[in-house]
Design a protein that fits this description.
Length: 142
C-alpha cells in the first residue's frame, strides 16, 4: 500500500495519506507534509519529540497533529523524517493522540527546501474510514 499521494492544486499543496489504521494514516500524512518542504530521505533521526493532543473529532485531531509538527519545526528548528502514532483513542467526547516524531537539527547547508509550508488548513479536509483502511485528505498553505 502506498503511504501518500499528492493531488494537483493551483495555489496550495494537497495530498492524501493512507494506512491500515488511523495511526498509520496520520503518520503518513506527517511524512507527506514534510516531503512537501524537503526530501526527508537523507535526515538522520537524532532528536525525538513526544506529542500528545486532544480534539473533538478526527479531522481536528489531524489538523492539530500536523500543526504541532509544523510548530516544532519552526520553533525548535528540527526537520522530521520519522513519525510514529502510538494511539488514537476516543475518550468521552474527545479523541486523544499519542505519538513521536524523530528528526535532526535544521542545517541550511544540508537541507535544501523545496516549498515552505505556512499552515495546515481546513480546506477540503477529510478522514475516511472503510473496511480497506483509512484515508486522510489535507491541504497545506504554501
Amino acid at each position: 500500500m502506498k503511504k501518500y499521494e499528492f493531488i494537483e492544486h493551483t495555489a496550495d499543496a494537497r495530498f492524501k495519506a493512507f494506512g491500515a489504521t488511523a495511526e498509520e494514516a496520520f503518520a503518513n500524512a506527517a511524512q507527506a507534509m514534510f516531503n512537501v518542504m524537503i526530501d526527508t530521505s537523507d535526515i538522520n533521526p537524532q532528536i525525538t519529540e513526544y506529542i500528545e493532543l486532544q480534539a473533538p473529532d478526527l479531522e481536528n485531531l489531524l489538523v492539530d497533529w500536523l500543526s504541532e509538527l509544523l510548530y516544532l519545526f519552526e520553533v525548535n528548528m528540527v526537520v522530521f523524517s520519522r513519525f510514529e502514532v502510538f494511539a488514537i483513542e476516543k475518550k468521552g467526547l474527545e479523541y486523544l493522540l499519542s505519538a513521536k516524531a524523530e528528526g535532526e537539527p535544521l542545517d541550511l547547508e544540508k537541507h535544501v527546501f523545496d516549498t515552505e509550508v505556512k499552515a495546515v488548513t481546513y480546506n477540503d479536509l477529510g478522514v475516511q474510514i472503510t473496511s480497506q483502511g483509512v484515508t486522510v485528505r489535507i491541504t497545506v498553505d504554501i
